[in-house]
Amino acid sequence: MRMPAILLLALAALLAVLPAHARGSRVQAAKLEQAQTLFASAVRWSDYEAALQQVDPAWREANPVSDLQLERYRQLQVTSYREGGSAMLADGTVVRDVEVGAINRHTQAERTVRWREQWRWDPEAKRWWQANGLPDFWDGH
């Protein structure tokens, strides 16, 4: 008779913990969607300063964006931002494939880049950060 009582207590404890964990997952998922929407919207509107606010501060510190680089981005008018599939990696990072189209305001040359966003959960700030900067429209040039 003691064994079923212990099992019932263990089951009750497990059920009490599961909703809190699920709630945390839902909150994280909602915050990821919000962060991705803010980032995508900023890029869609060619507001790269706002997009950089969604980028991981550690990445920004290691890869400072100069005024000249920002000026190059300002020459581009984004024409499309297509979100593809996404996946969560084993380390908890979320990756999402996107295709971004842009036209150079001065030359009217159009370019399209395929890019993989990386999103990192920051447990201290309780938010997601885009972990790999802005799309590279120049393919490293």
Question: Would you kindly provide a written description of the structure presented here, covering whatever features stand out?
Answer:
With 141 residues, this protein is α+β, with helices and mostly antiparallel strands. The protein has one domain (2-130): Roll (Nuclear Transport Factor 2, Chain: A), CATH 3.10.450. Helix content is 44%, strand content 29%. It is built from four helices and four strands. It has helices at residues 2-44, 48-52, 57-62, 67-74; strands at residues 76-88, 94-104, 110-122, 127-130. Strand 1 (76-88) and strand 2 (94-104) form a beta hairpin. The longest helix has 43 residues, at 2-44. The protein is globular and about 45 Å long. The model is unreliable at 10-23 (pLDDT under 50).
